[in-house]
Amino acid sequence: MGDSRPPESASADLVNSYARRRGDRVEVVLADPAPPMDAEGAVVVLRREGRRLRSQAQLLDDERGRRLVASFPADGLDDGQWRVIVRVANQRTSPGVRLLVQGPRPVVLLWGDRPTRPQIKV
Length: 122
Description:
Blueprint: E1 13-22, E2 25-31, E3 42-48, E4 51-56, E5 58-62, E6 65-73, E7 80-88, E8 91-93, E9 97-101, E10 108-111
Antiparallel strand pairs: 1-2, 2-6, 3-4, 3-7, 5-6, 7-8, 7-9, 9-10
């Protein structure tokens, strides 16, 4: 992995978190989410340039581990980087990822709440 490490402030296991297309939907899966949350009331919000999409999330706990799963209509996601926010009760947390959408290509979770500025070395 070289210098690529998940942010220390991440509230989920980012190495095992992922996003994928499932038919006409995009699924965001956050592995081992923290703080501990109950199975009801969790909402995942995607934000980009003033737009917001919300999805009620499911907390799954089985032999594959504990994960928070949210599903969004793919046609509601335009190209770009979407911030991912988790809301439980009145608390809002950032798991430390963004969702990258690029047309019909596979979707990707990127580490970090916001894009980093490229550092140009001279």
